[in-house]
Design a protein that fits this description.
Length: 239
């Protein structure tokens, strides 16, 4: 495989970061699949690395607490699959996921070096569907009928955002290059201001695809901000 060197777009990104304005009253943080099925190694069916799980949970907990104190809405979107009569889950009709079920070699899993399963992932009623407890508060909103990579597809996320008067969405969760990226694209197409929180995302697929996801957002459709950068923007925006 040919090695590809990342194009340096830091000048453009720095300039764009100077342009963004984020008002707490019209901002929502959307947590994507921040459930035990990815982040709790004791029950995870499609796990990140333990190190990524610890980093993401710790950073997300701190940021969510601060954001709530400023009146930022928090929405948790999680994947929950029904088991179909034929024995598979609602994921089983996707051709690529069907093929993955037939591949049993460790080196061919979606999660490099870690056991995982598509067909048993986040089945309705399983512990994997539970949001990480320290990330949720009673005031938060929950959408629990996500079935695919895009948080908007088949859910009422867009209606909820419009009801809350949200214009800026800040995304955190798993996976950087799939569900976060898919949701970012749809949000862009729906005219939202898109932010991905770099300290609070990870990819079970590997560090290379995590970097790809962040680069794709920052260079094409939105802003990639650290927790520190977001907090600074939220404070300044109300002054």
């Amino acid at each position: 495989m040919v090695e590809i060197e990342l194009i340096d777009r830091s000048s453009m990104i720095d300039a764009l970061n100077g342009e963004i304005k984020i008002l707490p009253s019209s901002t929502a943080i959307i947590t994507i699949d921040m459930h035990r099925g990815h982040l709790d190694m004791s029950v995870a069916t499609m796990p990140t690395t333990p190190e990524d799980a610890e980093r993401v949970i710790d950073n997300a907990k701190k940021l969510l607490g601060y954001a709530r104190s400023l009146g930022v809405s928090v929405i948790h979107v999680k994947l929950v699959m029904r088991r179909l009569r034929e024995g598979g889950s609602e994921a089983h009709i996707v051709p690529f996921w069907q093929a993955l079920q037939k591949v049993r070699h460790a080196q061919d899993r979606l999660t490099p070096g870690r056991p995982s399963t598509v067909n048993e992932h986040n089945l309705e009623g399983s512990p994997g569907t539970e949001i990480i407890p320290e990330l949720i508060e009673e005031s938060d909103f929950i959408i629990d009928n996500k079935k695919r990579l895009d948080c908007f597809m088949g859910t009422d996320l867009d209606i909820l955002l419009k009801s809350l008067g949200v214009r800026t969405i800040c995304l955190m969760g798993i996976n950087t290059n799939t569900c976060v990226l898919n949701t970012a694209f749809t949000a862009f197409n729906l005219n939202y201001q898109v932010v991905v929180l770099s300290d609070c995302v990870a990819s079970m697929y590997g560090e290379d695809l995590h970097v790809f996801g962040l680069q794709n957002v920052a260079r094409c459709i939105g802003w990639v901000l650290s927790n520190e950068q977001l907090c600074a923007k939220l404070v300044r925006s109300e002054s």
